[in-house]
Amino acid sequence: MRSSCGRTSIRPVRVVTSSLQFKNLPEAYPSSKYSLLSVVMLQAHPVGSRDATDSSEGGAGKCLLAGQIALRRSNRSKSSRDGNDEPAKVPTNNRRRNRERKCRTTREDYKRTAPSNSDSDSNGVEDNTTYPRPPVESHSPAIDCDGLSRPGDGTRDRLGECREAAAARLERLQGAVRTMLECVGENPDREGLLATPERYARAMMDLTKGYEQNVLDIVNGAIFHEHHNEMVIVKDIEIYSLCEHHLVPFTGMMHIGYIPQNNVIGLSKLARIAEMFGRRLQVQERLTKCVADVVYEVLQPQGVAVVMESKHLCMAMRGVQKTSSTTVTSCMIGCFEQRPETRKEFLTLVNMNR
């Protein structure tokens, strides 16, 4: 609406519905649909009326600017938005509270019914059997409320079990190894294999100890305030891990870099974080990303970059049997992702003297 003096006052009002068709808006704002959280409904009031929230020219200008920002946000892609338009970050204490709330919630056991084309068997009898749904990928934070980092489903059971339960777990694993030896045609009671089940069970528990390691204990407060805002890189960190597809090793080197934001971390902690994730059943892509996420969460730097190159025995010993192939993965966060020149500098320093 337009007053006698020709000015329009715009008042932003929050909308709680997921999708609306706006009508009776000024011509500058065409009617269209907007998604939840980016919608601001504009109401026009004549300047000087009782319902007008801002009777001054400056107040109307501020409301008009707010309306323009809201409409610009909803019509632009995330990558092209102005950073000044983005909402403020949630305070740290709120993030911690939300993390603890997620940690307290338990996972439901999802079930799905059998497909419609198999509701009856060959004899025409209806089959009401339910089948377990594949586990949903965890979207837990990089560091959970108890200091664990993306733990497995049974990690907390393994971490909190008593001595008797740990002994029972080891005994079950030894029995599984003995069964495996029998299945491949060996005699588990001959001299060379007599203690193999126990040795392998203990070795497997050691090779997967990263599941129960605590990130906060690893860092141990080794974060120091320094006025250093240039790139820090730790190169050639040896990684030994197990491929989760075939349970055979893959080995290689990891390079971790970050640009501090007035805080630096003890150099050995970067290697320990990489070791923690390496001591799990892994794929190289996830291993690289997990290390980058945790370093970013712990240190809150301007950016983090992780590159890993390794050889997989599942490609060399079996299958395609390509012994000279190398797999390279990377993960860039923050300024390393946003600035090509920063990413290029990191990759140049990583490949120096090679």
From TrEMBL:
Q: What class of enzyme is it?
A: hydrolase
Example GO biological process term? tetrahydrofolate biosynthetic process
GTP cyclohydrolase I domain span? 174-350
Please state the Enzyme Commission number of this protein: 3.5.4.16
**The entry's keywords:** Allosteric enzyme, Folate biosynthesis, GTP-binding, Hydrolase, Nucleotide-binding
- Recall the GO molecular function terms of this protein's record: GTP binding; GTP cyclohydrolase I activity; zinc ion binding
Region (Disordered): which ranges? 69-157
Instruction: Tell me the Gene3D superfamilies matching this sequence.
Output: 1.10.286.10, 3.30.1130.10
Biased composition annotated in UniProt, kind: Polar residues: 114-131
Which InterPro entries does the annotation name? GTP-CH-I_C/QueF, GTP-CH-I_N, GTP_CycHdrlase_I, GTP_CycHdrlase_I_CS, GTP_CycHdrlase_I_dom
Comp. bias intervals (Basic and acidic residues): 79-88, 103-112
Q: Which domain of life is it from?
A: Eukaryota
Tell me one Pfam family matched here: GTP_cyclohydroI
GO cellular component terms attached to this protein's record: cytoplasm
Pathway connected to this protein: Cofactor biosynthesis; 7,8-dihydroneopterin triphosphate biosynthesis; 7,8-dihydroneopterin triphosphate from GTP: step 1/1
Q: Which family does it belong to?
A: Belongs to the GTP cyclohydrolase I family.
So what does this one do?
Answer: GTP cyclohydrolase 1 is the first enzyme in the biosynthetic pathway leading to folic acid.
Protein name as annotated: GTP cyclohydrolase 1
What species is this protein from? Stachybotrys elegans
